[in-house]
Design a protein that fits this description.
The structure is a single chain. This protein is mainly α. The protein has one domain. It contains 19 helices and two strands. Helix 1 packs parallel to helix 5.
Amino acid sequence: MLTAARSSFGKVHLLLLGAILISGTHLRFGAVVDTVVQSPIRADAAQYVAYAYNLRDHYTYSHSLDVLLGKDVRPKPDALRTPGYPLFLYPFTTTGDLEEFSRRVTFAQAGISSLTILLAYGIAACVLGPSWALGVALLTALSPHLVTANTYLLSEALFALLLLLGLLVAQRAAHGQSGRSWIAVGLLLGLASLVRPTLQYFFLVASAVVAVQPGTRRGTNAAAWLVLGFAVVVAPWMLRNWLAIGAAGDGTLMISTLHHGMYPQFMYGGRPETFGFPYRFDPDAARIAESVGSVLQAIAGRFRDAFWEHLAWYLEKPLWFLRWGIVAGQGDIFIYPTESSPYYGQPLFVWTRAAMYATHPLLVGLSLLGAVTAWLPFARRFFDDGPLFSLRLLSAAYLYFIAIHVVGAPFPRYSIPVRPLTYALALVPPYLMPDAWRNFRSIRSSRKAPGTGTTPGSESMR
């Protein structure tokens, strides 16, 4: 009878996961079909597309826009952007019709974003078990930011897929301790860093977490294999840059993110009309953006002139990074101006957006609490070694992204790929609450029991 009950529960669980996956897939493909983006090949997207077409037409990695304008001019190679997303776009450049190109890419992104729902379930199941992981999968499926991201020619969908896949493989590798598994983790993190360069230092953080992971004596070896896998992917890109431009990389984007993140509340001088683009109104912007050193000098100068204002801004940055509305874009859940979207009127889209909007502040607050809980000593009382390592790895990735964008520009758009981590960590506190409450009552009972003093030091919480 017990076996039959378990089998029945397993079937129900599988049906629920399937329903969540179908719902999330419907939202993603529905958004791609019914969304019209105003001039979709613009700003960052235009550079990504130019890289892909320059590779196709001129065998040159360059963001020169001449190729999109029909000019037959051989471009000069550069390294402004890492090649992960342009290489993803490359197979779709077989058509010269940019509208058809965009349609193919966004459909492909809807597909890989649907896979992200399963990956979110997988990484959460390693920590919270399969039942709670359904909640993470549901939140990931319904997230309007993760849905609308697929409608743009931007890297969010691909980056989310590679990041979650890397974390999931790391969770699985911790059980087997196979060197090949850790190389695969490094390869995936390397690929993800070539899509979103802000991840380029995370391999150091991940290696540290792996090296001290509980329950194994081979953590140092695993960390070494991880670093090797990462180097195998990233080293060729750095070598190419040395040969093409005489440097390991282009620091322009680093300068920009430091520069754009130095203005409190994303405004120049507190003027509302400068919101989102304060650097465009700063008469010293060109001088500030000359080098990393000039940006750091400018930031230090701002702290000297208005210390408390800028300290408050940098302390606020995590909340700006995780906030709901996109700053440098159309706002709300849209990155670029969008002429039509199912979120403007179709009931399922409107209702799911409203539900996610209402719960967003709570989920963000709980996620920060869950991320901190992973590192507190009492966490060992609630989690075995495997789940504890998985939880700490998710927490390390989450806190890493927050820290990177505290240093730089905390544009909410950049938090979209880590929303599945937000949801996984947000469910940690409610997951622990029943056990915490039972142990609290147990401690109170033992203290009230006649003939006893304080709770014995050997009292076990779990």
